Amino acid sequence: MSLPVDHDTVIVGGGFSGIAMAIALKAAGRDDLVVLEKAEEVGGTWRENRYPGCECDVPAHLYSYSFELNPYWSQTYAPSDEIQDYLLYCVEKYDVRRHIEFDATVQDAAYDEESSTWTVTVTSSWGTLRTLRARSLVLAVGALHEPSIPDIPGMESFAGEMMHTATWDPGTTVERKHVSVIGTGSSGVQIIPSLAEDAVHLTVFQRTPAWVMPRTNRQYADRLIDTFEQHPTALAAHRARLKATSDLRERGLTSAPRLLKAASRLALENLHSAVKSPQLRAVLTPDYPMGCKRILLSSDYYPALARPDVTVETDPIERIERDAVVTTSGRRHHTTVLVLATGFDPVGSYRYLGIKGADGHLLSADWDDGATTYLGVTVPHFPNLFLLLGPNSLLGHTSDLQIMEAQVGLVMRLLAERDRRHTRSVAVRPQVVPGFVAELDRRSERTVYLSGCSSWYLDRGGRNRTLWPGSVGEYERRTTRPEMVDYLFT
């Protein structure tokens, strides 16, 4: 049975991956598409994360589209507002905005086997409800988008200002206030130096110390920017060097941890040069292998923690009161601003979507014991559904955007093959996925990610369901020349 569709492709999410998918579809002449964005503007992570000190920890020339190199980055690691401006530029240049519906939150989506189409239910902030039917559904919802909120007794009783770093109000000021920050991961390391400058007193609640490498964030001289602008080949060569050197770090994380020894020494030198107190140094020294958690970059984090008006608290939090955070040791830290730098749930964006595939399969139920996909893009029993930056496709050593672009390319190849065969649907064969997951588990076992610490890389069962345990080059090869026998065309 053939039913009329509203669009050939529905893309959920207007961040880096959703915009890239729309650009690729348009370039291939598949411009019957809509991008559903729940907010009032594109940008995803970079629209929402506006906290002080927010920057990307990947060099800007690598954290951008390979097909749209930007000669105008102001510094090595771009601040969030520059990245957001870059995305807005791409949306206009590639005429994507006319395909975007804002204030469009996807509530659920169901696959109809008889017509080989997806019916997507969309709500707005006004409470309106409508449905869209499409041949293909692309979930570009982001892996680091759904804030992880700790379950601490008494949080509801806190009378001061409380916010997650991802919901930071740009008008917030901490001057003459007592501030507490929970979390010392990527966002914590970035926001803490800024807060320490203005707060009367800052208390940092650290569960586990991080490995922090010094960061050289140099401003690009006008002369170099002009060179990149006038000589695109020089800019392309610069990006290629960044890509190659960054991907070399993969071996130290996945197969040869001994290669991280020199980096570990550099991180410890960074700590010792900034923190003179032996007691504080001991508190900030990791007792797990480098790379087991995300390696952080900062040259002002340790100096901020060494300030006399900053306290590093390592005792677990017992409860939160109206104006204080109380630890298990009984210490009561007076607080008027509470900042949750607690990161994100890597599969949270999928967990809250009701995605129903063929034969009654529900994505959230299928993933209850661990998120499983094929190459992070396709899921068995979910025809014509494609994920971007899905499980096991993030990176711990370089720019995720390289994986994302490879995935966009894979989706385009699968759609082209579906058309070439004159079939209505494409899905990964269910028999293929267990072997692929077993490969990931086997390879992950020898990585530093499973060397004993607890991190957001691992699921509840302690399995790596977040990172790709290999190089960018390998992933690109596997997606550029996919084995079409692994897919079922119906």
UniProtKB/TrEMBL annotation:
Query: Would you say which domain of life the source belongs to?
Result: Bacteria
Q: Kindly name one Pfam family recorded for this protein.
A: Pyr_redox_3
Q: Which organism is it from?
A: Luteipulveratus flavus
Q: What taxonomic ancestry is recorded? A: Bacteria, Bacillati, Actinomycetota, Actinomycetes, Micrococcales
- Name of protein: NAD(P)/FAD-dependent oxidoreductase
Matching PANTHER family? FAD_NAD(P)-BINDING DOMAIN-CONTAINING PROTEIN-RELATED, L-ORNITHINE N(5)-MONOOXYGENASE-RELATED
